[in-house]
Amino acid sequence: MHDLSAIWPAQPDWRAAALDRPGLSVRPAPGLAQHLISGDFAAWARQASFPHADIGGFGLAQGDRYCVRLARDRVLAVGPSDFVAPSGWRAEGFAATPISAGLLVFELTGALSSEILARATALDPSRTSPSAAMNFAGIQAIVYRYRDSETARIHIDRPMGSHFWTWLAATVENLASAEDDGH
After folding, report:
1. Do the Cβ atoms of 144 and 162 come closer than 8 Å?
2. From CA 116, how far away is CA 170, in angstroms rounded?
3. Are 57 and 131 in contact (CB under 8 A)?
C-alpha cells in the first residue's frame, strides 16, 4: 500500500497555533466538552441540568454552557471540559453522544472576525440563521458568535484541521495585503 502521508501537510501543534494581526486573533479553543444531542433535547437538557436555549448560525452564545442548533431535532451541547452528559439512547426520547475528540474548535476574535466569516460562506454573517451547521471555507462547520459580536467560534471535523488552518492563514494574509494596498 502506498504511503500517502507525504502529500498531506502535518497537523499544527494546536496548543501553540495562533494567527495574530491588528484587529484579529485566531486560536484553537481547547478544553471544551462537546455532545451531539438528537431527539428531544429539552428532555436531555432537563436531565443534564443544562441550559435549554439554543443558538443558530451567527447567533450569540453566552456563558460556559450552551446548545448550538444543528437541525430541527439536533443540537451540539458545549461546556467546560469537566462537563459529563448522560449519553446513549434514553427512553425520554433522546440520544446523546460525546464528540469532543472528533471536533476542533477555533475562536476568531477582533473587529476583522466578521470579514473572515464573510469570506468563508455565502451566508450573510450579519443575520442569524436557524442552524449553525453550514458550508464554511469549503468544509462543513458549526459557526456562531461567542460572548460578543467580535468573537466567533467554529467547530470543524478534526481531520480537516490542517486544511482549515491553511485556509485561515491564507485569508489573513490576503486581508493584510489588501489593507497594505489601501483596499
Report:
1. no
2. 11
3. yes
d(CA 163, CA 50): 33
Distance in angstroms (rounded) separating the CA atoms of residues 129 and 82: 30
pLDDT reported for residue 10? 77
3-class DSSP state of 28: strand
Enumerate the β-bridge partners of residue 34.
Answer: 78
pLDDT digits (tens, 9 = 90+) for 48-62: 888 877 899 999 999
C-alpha cell at 73: 431535532
Task: Give Cβ neighbours of residue 15 (< 8 Å, ≥ 6 apart).
Answer: 28, 30
What are the distances in angstroms from CA 100 to CA 21, 42, 160? 29, 21, 15
Task: Give, in order, the Cα–Cα distances in Å from 6 to each of 2, 26, 86, 159, 167.
Answer: 10, 27, 41, 15, 19
Residue 81, all three cell numbers = 471540559
Complete domains list, the chain, with CATH = 20-180 (3.30.1360.120)
For residues 17 and 42, what is the distance between their CA atoms, to the nearest angstrom? 36
Residue 172's H or E segment, with its range, is helix 161-180
Cα–chain-centroid distance for residue 46? 24
pTM above 0.90, yes or no: yes
Amino acid, single-letter form, for residue 179? E
Residues in the chain: 183
